[in-house]
């Protein structure tokens, strides 16, 4: 309202409606090469207005107040000029229909990773899976948990499982713990600090899952600029991107119960190589799972034996 009281001396000072701002920003984002231009504009405007995104459609003709517009303008600049991902600007991202806090200290959970959660659940809820001793709870390990997305998605689906999640980054573990709290799953997940299996020496699990760093250094030049705002250690894993997966596959057998499963997210072109690594390491029933774009995104295998423990 105060916008209307001021003289419209310039474009900058005149009053803008929700719809006008959305149109202008979508166009600006498109010209800046941002793919999800309209969605990003909506998410950022809703954030600046502190209202749910769908509310924007009802408020199309409403003028945006100067304070709100200033907030929005800053967000738009960060998105278009600095290429900060929307998840970081908003401080949260939805994954598995749960809302996760996200900062620069963690990899933003991506839809592709839901493939990993689905793969894990298909085994856990499938026939014949589980501890030989029916009285024992199923034990799950999430390596390199980051925001905690995978472990907490599984915790939300599996009230009877014990979850352990590890990360090399203390800062990430802090966020993961906050997310556990936020999702009321604090008692469900044991968070441990350390490199891969190091913090779980001597322990075995029925299921090990991981979305490790797997981006190849040699691809660095062709990556979207947004990745610069996420932790390097969560993304890159040597020249071919396989440095961490190699160690993970090699170490997994010692931490799986007989009949237990390992599932790892990867880049589609790594699938064949990692399937071979799994077979060489002694895994059986090696399989792959596909992401929404139908590319191989997850491979897994079963550690020989029955009854998983
Ligand atoms: N899928 C991510 C990307 O390409 C990479 C995630 C990862 O390295 N675990 O942006």
CATH fold-level topology of the largest domain: Rossmann fold
CATH H-level superfamily of the largest domain: Vaccinia Virus protein VP39
Overall helicity: 25-40%
How many strand elements?
Answer: 9
Specify Rg, calculated over alpha carbons. 22 Å
Structural class: alpha/beta
| Name of the CATH class of the largest domain | Alpha Beta
Morphology call = elongated
- The total tally of domains equals 2
Largest sheet: number of strands, sense, barrel closure = 7 strands, mixed
Name the ligand types: glutamine
What is the topology, as strand order, of the major beta sheet?
5-4-3-6-7-9-8
- For the termini, the CA-CA separation is 67 Å
Mean pLDDT: 94
- How are helices and strands ordered from N to C? HHHHHHEEHEHEHEEHHEHEE
Low-confidence stretches: 1-8
What share of residues are in beta strands? 15-25%
The number of helical segments is: 12
Q: Return the CATH architecture of the largest domain.
A: 3-Layer(aba) Sandwich
Describe the structure.
This protein is of the alpha/beta class. It has two domains: 6-82, Helicase, Ruva Protein, domain 3 (Orthogonal Bundle), CATH 1.10.8; 95-302, 3-Layer(aba) Sandwich (Rossmann fold), CATH 3.40.50.150. 36% of the residues lie in helices and 18% in strands. The strands form two sheets. Strands 5-4-3-6-7-9-8 form a seven-stranded mixed β-sheet, sandwiched between helices. Strands 1-2 form a two-stranded antiparallel sheet. Strand 4, helix 9 (170-182) and strand 5 form a beta-alpha-beta unit. Glutamine (GLN) binds next to loops.
